[in-house]
Sequence to fold (299 residues):
Amino acid sequence: MAKSVDEFNKKRLRSSNITVVISIALVLFLLGLMGLILINAQKYSDYIKEQLVVNAYFDENYDAKDSVKIAKFEEETLKKVQTLAPVKKATYISRAAAAIEAKKSMGIDSDALFEENIFPSSIEIALKPEYVDPAKIDEAIKIIKSVQGIVDVKNDSTLMVDVYNNLSRILKWIFGFSLLFLVLAVVLINNSIRLKIFSKRFIIKTMQLVGAKRRFILKPFIIEAVVLGAIGSFIGLAALCGVWYYFTSQIGSSFVQDNQQYFWLIVLVLGVGVLITVLSTIIATWRFLKSNVDDLYYS
Fold:
C-alpha cells in the first residue's frame, strides 16, 4: 500500500514538473518571438530610413577644359562628405549619369533634346537613421551645405516626416506588445510555480514543525526552481531557434542581423526563465512558512 502511494506521489511530482517546464518553455518561446520581431522591426526601420536620400549638388557651371581639375575637386569634396557625422553612405553621380537618369525618368531615348552636361554632378547621401528625424534633418542638411563645393542640398522633407512618423508609430506598438508579453510571461510562470508549491504546502509546514530552519527548507526548492527554469528556457530557445531558422531559410537571410543583439535576447530569455521561477518559488514557499497550520486548508 505504501509502495503504491509513493509511486503515485512520484508520478504526480513528475507530472507537476513537466507541466511547469512546458509552461515556462511556451511562455518564453512567445516572449523570445516578440523579441525577434522587435529587433528586426528596428533594423528594417533603419533600412527604410537609409533609403530616404538627400541630394547634394555641385556647381552647374562646367567647362570641358577644366574637366580634370573639376573631377579632382569633386572627388575631394565627396571624401569630405563621407566623413560627416550625419552621413551613412555617399554616392557620387556624374553629369553623364545624371543625364542618363533624367532620360529614363522622362522616357526619352534620343540625345537631341539634351545638351551635353546639362545636369550638374551631385552626391546622393543616405543619412544615418538617427538623423532621419524632423528635429534633426535640418541640422544634417546644414552640415552638408557647409562643405566647400556643395551649392545646394535637396530632400523630400514631407516624405521623410511621413515615413518617420509611421515607422515610429509601428515600433511603439511592437514595443508595447513586447512589454505586454513580458508581463504575461511573469504572471504565467508565477502561477505555474505557485500551483506546484501549493501541492507541497503540507510537506513545507511539516518540515518547519519538526524544527527545520527556513533556509534549509527553501534550499531544495530554489535548486529545483533553477533546474526547471533552465530546462524550460532551453526548450523554449530551441523551439525559437528552430522556428526562426525555418523562417529565414524560406524568406531569405535578410532578416539575420547583428548577432550581438540576438545574444542579449538569449540572455534575457534565460534570465527571465530562471529569475522568475526562483523568485516565484521563494515567494510562494515563504507564504506557507509564515502561515498557520489551519490556514493550509483554506489557502
Remarks:
- The CA atoms of residues 80 and 219 lie 64 Å apart.
- The first helix runs from residue 2 to 50.
- The helical segments are 2-50, 67-82, 95-106, 137-145, 157-198, 201-209, 214-251, 259-290.
